[in-house]
Amino acid sequence: MTHAEVRESLNDSLLSISRRIGEKTLDTLRFIGGFTMLCVEMVREIFRPPYYFSLIVDQVFYVGVQSFSLAAVTGLATGSVMALQFGYGLARFGGKLYIPTIVSLSIVREMGPVFTSLLVAGRIGSGIASEVGSMQVTQQIDAMRALGTSPVKKIVIPRVIACLIALPLLTLFVDYIGLFGAMLVCSKELGINTEYFISKAIASSVTMDVVTGMMKTVVYAFFLSVTACWKGLHTTGGTQGVGNTTTWVVVTSSIFIMISDFFLSKLFLLTLYPHF
Fold it and tell me: Alpha-carbon Rg of the chain, whole angstroms?
């Protein structure tokens, strides 16, 4: 290739990269604006009658009750694996007696909220996005508007409220199941007395540790549910568009959960322990 051809190929590559960066930036700004506008519309609609309490109850059942079995498996596996890994790791240094404290704090502060939120992002976030997206591409949303019904009030608000109620409760459930799994492993595999595990777990995990973990999930639930509803309401392209919407919601929510976990943890630690 001549120098002119190499220069032209390089310019084309740079132009393509710049175009992709510009498109991603515009998509991000469009999402931030749409997310904000949907939140404002929710605040405007939530205090206006009619109120669809039955829809909220249905969504709480779908989000919370139907996720119990999956949450139980997640919590049990998380607690068991953490106890096993910490047990054999700390046993080398004679620190086996610190396992209940380390495991309980890890589950209550981080593992329980994060794993539960990722679980809900995969199961519930994708479900909301695909359901609302299917309604959008089949013009059910337009029909709802034509009949004078607000899609935000009937579709978005019940799902957001249900996630805000169910996700913290699921997190609390996962915390206890995880501690139960860790207690079983400590008792059967590591030779740690059950009464000792329970006493150390209770002594090390204060109420605010549990509360801060649940408060994290409130933030995750709000972002996850609003994001899924917004993307579903803006789905185009038929069935392929619904699939793209589902994938986008799960990926975006998971990234938000992983990144925001650091900042929320730092905020709560500075609030609870100012000298930290």
Answer: 23
Q: Are 148 and 45 in contact (CB under 8 A)?
A: no
The secondary structure element, H or E, covering residue 53 is helix 53-63
Contact 206, 104 (CB under 8 A): no
Nearest CA among 272, 265, 274 for reference residue 106: 265
pTM of structure: 0.87
Spatial CA neighbour of 224 closest among 259, 242, 251: 251
Alpha carbons 99 and 52: distance in angstroms, whole number: 47
Place of tokens 């992709």: 20
Give Cα 200 distance to the centre of its chain: 29
Split at pLDDT 50, 70, 90, the class of 3 is low
Q: Are the beta carbons of 154 and 270 closer than 8 angstroms?
A: no
- Can you tell me the distance from the alpha carbon of 131 to that of 149, in angstroms, rounded to the nearest whole number? 18
Residue type, 138: T
DSSP track, 116-160? HHHHHIIIIIHHHHHHHHHHHHTTHHHHHHHTT--HIIIIIHHHH
Q: What is the pLDDT of residues 134-189, one digit of tens each?
A: 888 888 888 888 888 888 998 999 999 999 999 999 999 999 999 999 999 888 88
